[in-house]
Amino acid sequence: MAAPPVIIWEHEVERLLHYRELVPRLEEALGKFSRRDSAEVIQPVRNIVPLQKQNGFLALMPAYMENDGVLCTKLVCFYKREDGSTLPAVQATVVLLDPEYGNVKAVIGGEVITDMRTAAVSAISAKLLMRPEAEVLAILGTGKQALSHYRVFTEMFSFKEVRVWSRTREGVARFRHSVSSPVTACVSAEEAVRGADVIVTVTRSTEPVLFGRWVKPGAHVAAVGACRPNWRELDDGLMKEAVVYVDSREGAMSESGDVILSGAEVFAELGDVINGTKPAHREKKTVFKSLGMGVQDAVSAKLVLDQWKAKACQP
Ligand SMILES: NC(=O)C1=CN([C@@H]2O[C@H](COP(=O)(O)OP(=O)(O)OC[C@H]3O[C@@H](n4cnc5c(N)ncnc54)[C@H](O)[C@@H]3O)[C@@H](O)[C@H]2O)C=CC1
Ligand SMILES: O=C(O)C1=NCCCC1
């Protein structure tokens, strides 16, 4: 009989997961995904169940990495909550299975994984697509993703200034209290992004919050919110003039309102740039449209379980 599953909750994940180990694994996984070799990665576009009454969605995100022996699925609910709601915008659990027997090996809290892997992938997009001389980072939104993005971007790069904007003063105040270094609080999204080299959009908005006319030539945008086909964070102007990169083409074509409604062409997946099959247009305006992928959760969860086992074995 298989051993009972290990259960690893959020505070433990927070202790075990570090960007220095996570980022290279995600980069490798993105590259493998874009090779479309079914012995390396099988990851269908996620199944979505609408939760009409609760104004939300349940997404089922399976992934199988045969050569790595990783079989995983995330169950994630996300909601279109109003500001001030005490309920979370995203709730997730990750399940790791043994591909040989099909038994569950581990049940892992999925919120820290979701926050950290999403931010780490945006940071990978910046590493590949921002100009080397980038000095100013702007973050639109001040929730959980804003915080994880701030953490990994300031760990991986040396920005001279970090600007933040939120619709509410309280949002900015809370954010400033949660971070270790000074940030510039901006009263409008336009003020935050004018002249910025890298812009991260991490809002729950369903309408554009970032407009191409505000974005300077050569800037890189990592767009993380707006994960439904009728939701937007970016306007048509930005989508059409930028070179657009995505995590998964299939995901973007079925879920991204910014891609679908603007009619913008998807130039490449991040994995194509990692594999050297498509160029990184650092000199142009670039958009990385993030939607999130099962393989990102799979490698993150495997890392958590490996670290947990290593720590559990220590005397
Ligand atoms: N691409 C990906 O892999 C992932 C995307 N997401 C998405 O990222 C977004 C942010 O997630 P969290 O930080 O966890 O949420 P959160 O609730 O912690 O923060 C959301 C932020 O958006 C702001 N906001 C809400 N409505 C707005 C509007 N109409 N205009 C401007 N700002 C608005 C809030 O004030 C808050 O600062 C969500 O849309 C979520 O679905 C979340 C996880 C993974
Ligand atoms: O990949 C994920 O995890 C999510 N993507 C979009 C919405 C919330 C969670």
Short descriptors:
globular, binds ligand LZCNNONV, 24% strand, binds 1,4-dihydronicotinamide adenine dinucleotide, 8-stranded parallel beta sheet, 2 domains, alpha/beta, 37% helix, Rossmann fold, ornithine cyclodeaminase, domain 1, 6-stranded mixed beta sheet, 315 residues
Write the layout of secondary structure elements.
Elements: E1 6-8, H1 10-16, H2 19-34, E2 47-51, E3 56-65, E4 70-79, E5 90-97, E6 104-109, H3 111-129, E7 136-140, H4 144-156, E8 161-165, H5 169-178, E9 184-186, H6 189-193, E10 198-201, E11 220-223, H7 236-241, E12 243-246, H8 249-255, H9 257-262, E13 266-269, H10 270-275, E14 286-289, H11 294-313
Parallel strand pairs: 1-6, 7-8, 7-10, 8-9, 10-11, 11-14, 12-13, 12-14
Antiparallel strand pairs: 2-3, 3-4, 4-5, 5-6
The protein binds 1,4-dihydronicotinamide adenine dinucleotide (NAI) and ligand LZCNNONV.
Describe this structure in words.
- The protein contains eleven helices and 14 strands.
- It has two domains: about 5-115 and about 295-315, ornithine cyclodeaminase, domain 1, CATH 3.30.1780; about 120-295, 3-Layer(aba) Sandwich (Rossmann fold), CATH 3.40.50.
- Helix 3 packs across helix 4 and helix 3 crosses helix 11 (about 295-315).
- The protein is about 35% helix and about 25% strand.
- The longest helix is centred in the last third of the chain and has 20 residues, at about 295-315.
- By secondary structure, the chain is an alpha/beta fold.
- The mean pLDDT is about 95.
- The site of 1,4-dihydronicotinamide adenine dinucleotide has 27 residues, from helix 3 and helix 4.
